[in-house]
Amino acid sequence: MNELNETRRLHKSYILFPLFSVLKSLLPFFILVVLKGLNWSAIPWYLYAGGIAVVLLPSLLYGWLKWRKFSYTLQEDRIVLRRGMFVREEISIYFSRIHAVQTQQPLIQRILRIAQLKIETPGGSKEADGVLPALRVDEAKRVERWLYQKRSEAVVKDPAAITPEQQMETSSEETGIHGEYAGIEGEPGTESGLGSAHERGVDSRLSRVDGLEVPAPVETEVPVQQEPLLRLSAGRLFVGALTTMNLPLLLVFATGTYSFADDLLPDHFYRRLVEEAGSLPAIWWLGLIPLMFLLAWILSAVLFTIKYAGFTVEREGGNISIVSGLLERKKHVFSPTKVQAVAIREGLLRQPFGYAEVEIYVLTSEKEKKMMLHPLLPMREVNELLASIVPQYELQADIAKPPPRALWLFLRWKLLIAMLVGIAGTIYFGMVGIGLFVLLPVFGLWGYARYKDEGLNIYGKQLLIRHRQISRLTVLMRRPHVVTVNAIATSRQRARSLLTVEATLMVNRGGWKATFLDQAHAVAVQNWMHQAARHAVPSKI
Fold first, then answer.
1. What is the pTM for the complete model shown?
2. From CA 88, how far away is CA 223, in angstroms rounded?
3. Which residues have C-beta within 8 Å of that of residue 511, sequence separation ≥ 6?
């Protein structure tokens, strides 16, 4: 970057991108040819040469034209992207509208040792509004820092340009300082370390970023530095993966594998597979199910380790970055004030040993709003982790639980389902199926565990909701981020003064709920949400 308004191009390896795309689409064809046992030696050399030329030359020519027609320019108040061969497209992204900037390394970029830069704006598309797909890694990082710096300066110069999403970043700290509940017991009136650049008294003077003169903050703000907060080894990740079944990750892999195999396997393959499976004795199926579960468990652990390999959390100035991925290296950068919820999940294999995984829900225009913060952490260290990354959240031990009269509501459907499965198994499998009645005590314990773990708590401006399906999930959220709080119940449940509390956020419209709570607790949450009470809400319900 020598000066502003200079037209810059992508890294020349961008020319190879169309070739990689063609090879990817031809991969099923190559595998099919190999499986058919084609005699490669019988093919004349000129057909090999012609085939390579047909694939190589048009792809490289198309890639070169795309590279020549793709440029970007850094201007005083915006970054301008120009692209397109036949239809020229010019995209202007103003610094004040930038929501997030991320440096990533998908598989192709990792192979070529380059990076892509994604620029997001509020209300933009899920694929980001501006993408520079091929930059040198050091250049991508410099542009990323420069864009964040220019965004901060644009907000300082013109506060009216702040978008609603950017306003939400500071909403929690504003209420923390000036809100009517600033003096709530157990919560400080301010949240340190989350102030905006303007509140920290940032001054602006000319400095150089890779040869480019730009206004840069000088004292009172510390220069942007990368401070490692957390690094996890592959062994720790694999142990964390073994203690939970990552079903979503496994389903994505299975769907992709099935789609790929469907193009290669003959049509009669699946029909024959079903016929063979139907001829197996029932006792074989009872043994196959645990084996398939074990294989799926190990496979999900391997996929989890690959997805989060090299897991690192760093502080970059006032932002937090999370980097992970073996095949596709991803980097998520966000402000702590964008974190709308913290989810602490204790699996069946983890809870007895006092371990959990911690996830955060971040307000971003990306499709992926849920991010892993730690895959395997002792529960006693959760608050220490939160204090170092998202200090506005704190895990509280005390919660308001369902009353004893709610126990039957947690048990009834589970016991009924277990009874029906046992009866159906006995009818279909005979004496072997009687063993399915073992589900009765298992499902009974499951319902009782749900009853014991359900609950919620109000702590200042923070709401805690705890719920169990299989794993025990504890969610922390703050009032400025909560969209709705609903109290739900059937007429019979209301007659028992039992309500289900459900809270929704922008990052999770499905919401989180705590079921069959005492009506007084549900009303207290609604009052907390609507700020109906003028007196301080108790720190414990």
1. 0.71
2. 39
3. 484, 486, 502, 503, 504, 505
